[in-house]
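User: quick one
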Amino acid sequence: MDSSAILAEIPRLRRYARALLGDRAAADDLVQDTLERAWSRVAQWRPGSNLRAWLFSIMHNLRVDQIRRPNLPTYSMEEDDFEVPTRATQSDALEVRDIAHALSQVPDEQRAVLLLVALEEMGYAEIASTLNIPIGTVMSRLSRGRERLRVVMEGRPTGANLRVVR
Amino acid sequence: MKPLPISESDLHAYVDNVLPESLRAEVEDYLASHPDEAERLQAYQAQNLALKELFNPMLDEPIPDNLLALAAKPETVIPQEDFLRGAVNAQKRSIFSRWSLERIAAGLLIAVVSGVSGWLAHGQYQPPVRSAQVVPLPRQAAVAHVVFSPDVRRPVEVRAEQEDQLVTWLSKRLGTPVRPPKLGTLGYELIGGRLLPGNSGPVAQFMYHDSSGQRLTLYVTTENTANQDTGFRFAQEGPVNVFYWIDGKFGYALSAGIDKSELSRVATAVYDQLEH
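Assistant: Done. Structure below.
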């Protein structure tokens, strides 16, 4: 596992962690934990296999551990980060801010799948192996996550309207 | 004969452009005859775009130093004792962020446990003297220094530009006039201040920096009910040097990652400006 390969993955890890957690500092902490764990388990990495998928799956496992561990609620000190680059400069700025909020209303496990699809453009099978869940679960989480996001963004009451994956 | 029904998974694959070409025409026919579904899928496509637009700028952000460093194999595991070192370089936020939070959490727990047990004990017998500090002043000050001085964006609650408001507010909350000393002649300008919880009530922290960005904090408590005055005392908490002294009900602690002799010059200047 060489440094330049790892280096090349850091921006994507940060982007995903930021989108998943909605908080810059927490996201970078998660990336840091991921890299530290990756190095500590470097012997488990098979050269030639997909480094990105391996790192994402480490990050996912750390995140699962975090969620299981009860934590004090914390607030970001940088909550205005989302607003700065897009406010009033683009016609769709409102929509972009909306989606940041709406994303936070999507359950964690659905959000993870949604982001791996939308940002990472991972294939469904790759997501299944990264998150260590069956592909059917990937599809149902994707379906529910997208619908949830749509409902929140349209300002409709949430809770109903779940769709069964055939 | 009608083909197999279009599945939800096919629709998502269509949204994500991973639908096998052989099914594309079929899905498009389906959408043409189901406008609600077409609208739903359009919303999903818009989500993909909006998410990219929102988060892709992250890809171009400079990578923080601590993450850059981790692109290479770390030499050793960071020992917990090193956590204070993070404060020395305001930019090196990584090492201490995790350890210090654990330490602070542990410290808070100790404070809470001590407080609770003290309170419980109080019900049973009167403690002879209630002057002992739960956490020693230099330790409190050093931790507060380590927590806030590396914060690039929000090191203080009220900035020096609103110094009048800062003074009014902190004086009101501490119940006694407090004012940040002027250290400009020594090269330190006030950044601002904040209110913090001390052992039994509010304490104030003023933060200064010099032209190189070196930060220095003055921690002011009014919690010393029974302690007699002290002269200057020096303490070292990891890489943070602390000069502290007690003056009546006030406790002062000056913390920075600078050497003892320079800190002592600043401490003298602070002392000289205070009313005795």
